[in-house]
């Protein structure tokens, strides 16, 4: 069976490229989904009461800059961009009363980088609101003159308010221990009479009629729900113990409930019979109220933390990434999912390095050291072999910082196996396309040579013969002279058209005189044939370039000039070709009517051909145009042919090509 023709091969390749583009669109959709999930994670992080930051400080204190600010700073009334634009805002937002302590701590830490930076201070928002921030950070020396601080600022406003309320409660407790709320008593167990140190005894909330009362009056004041229990405790103590300690509730005449704390000792006679109980009693209601408020706060915060934890767990479970946490020793403590053939139990409790391939072990060890010791964020690619095959993973690793200290690392690994397989296929397709293009250029060159050395030579010979016959017929005044002149003109037109066809196939001047002369030939042809002025300027040497690359450069300029002539509405274009080192820049510009690039049909190969040619040779093309403002095409190409690069890539990936 005959092998497919170049045109058939190109059609097959175009079909494969369309399939690749479809797969790329699918991957783009997946990437969009990942971006949406990342946005959700960031939104959740923004609701946490803290923000991360990173600063770069000159040791002598003369220079300070913010290299990173987390979005959680919105909680304090500022945005990360405001801080980046004006790093001094990080100082201005500190409450004036706290700046002295802040600067003193800064001086101490800059003098001794081993000191942790720890301070609680008030932060003032642009609207004047004041919130408390707990700053915890540590330094990493990045040079002889600079320290890098990585830390976190936690919103502790609620904690400070709670502490203030607790302090107030403690003050109230102290007041409760004043004589008004504090009482001493002596209970005569033989008569059940109780002698009080004051008629204003805390159990009753009112002055008693006498400082000597019967014990039943005391039990009348005890809360009904506590009365029986208190009786039983007292009876047990009197019967067999020597000390009494208890807390219980009493009801005052106004109906309010108060908490009392009693402490007493029992005195016995020579026979061991209890005769006296001496003790003290004080009102601890404010303390109990404060304790109850704190317990409620703890419950509320616990519920909130459980909700946050549940949301994080749900996000982690829904993420297509492999998310894991490590401790300071690099041991896996959590993972949300595993590869086929690997269980969670296989991973938990084992060092992550147990799963590194021998080829990647050294590099991964260095990445982990940089994260766990220096707090650096690292990313790398690796292969993970498992029961069903090998995964290509894109790994991102960041430190897990708690209270300003690195407690471990968080790792997110994305499975990019399909993407890498797509890239390998694309590289293979591009290599094949270049080879087909090279074959096509060779065929164009051979066809041009055949026309030039065959057809053109015969037609030129026929022209000379016709010229000789014309002179003879002219002398004889032959009636066929007019027809012969018409035939001669047609031969001359055929020669011109044949040479134009050769130029369209591949100007032979490229092979004979190089790129610069071929571009000048192009400009001359545009001027002669269409009256179009293509001003071409070339800088640099091009003799050493790959012939295929020179052919692509010629086609790009040819297509660009042709587009200007046909669509711009002006009669001139400016072309500049410049080589600097291993880079080539091509610029084609006109002052014509311009166009809307988004409305150009995909069936118009002019613009798309320029872009695809540039991409195929490892370069890029940018087209800047707008209606009424002209057009500028900028193409950048590497001087080294991409064929060698693609070949090396295919060699490393060939076993995985499907």
From TrEMBL:
A Pfam family this chain is assigned to? HisKA_3
Q: Where is the PAS domain?
A: 76-113, 169-241, 341-375
Q: PAC domain spans which residues?
A: 117-168, 244-296
Record-listed E.C. numbers: 2.7.13.3
Give the superkingdom in one word: Bacteria
Keywords recorded for this protein, A-Z = ATP-binding, Coiled coil, Kinase, Nucleotide-binding, Phosphoprotein, Transferase, Two-component regulatory system
The record's listing under Gene3D superfamilies reads: 1.20.5.1930, 2.10.70.100, Histidine kinase-like ATPase, C-terminal domain, PAS domain
> One GO molecular-function annotation for this sequence?
ATP binding
| UniProt key word Protein transport | no
Q: Which GO terms describe its cellular component?
A: membrane
Q: Which residues form a coiled coil?
A: 10-44
State the reactions this protein catalyses: ATP + protein L-histidine = ADP + protein N-phospho-L-histidine
What is the protein name given in its UniProt record?
Answer: histidine kinase
Q: Which organism is it from?
A: Blastopirellula marina DSM 3645
Q: What is the lineage of its organism?
A: Bacteria, Pseudomonadati, Planctomycetota, Planctomycetia, Pirellulales
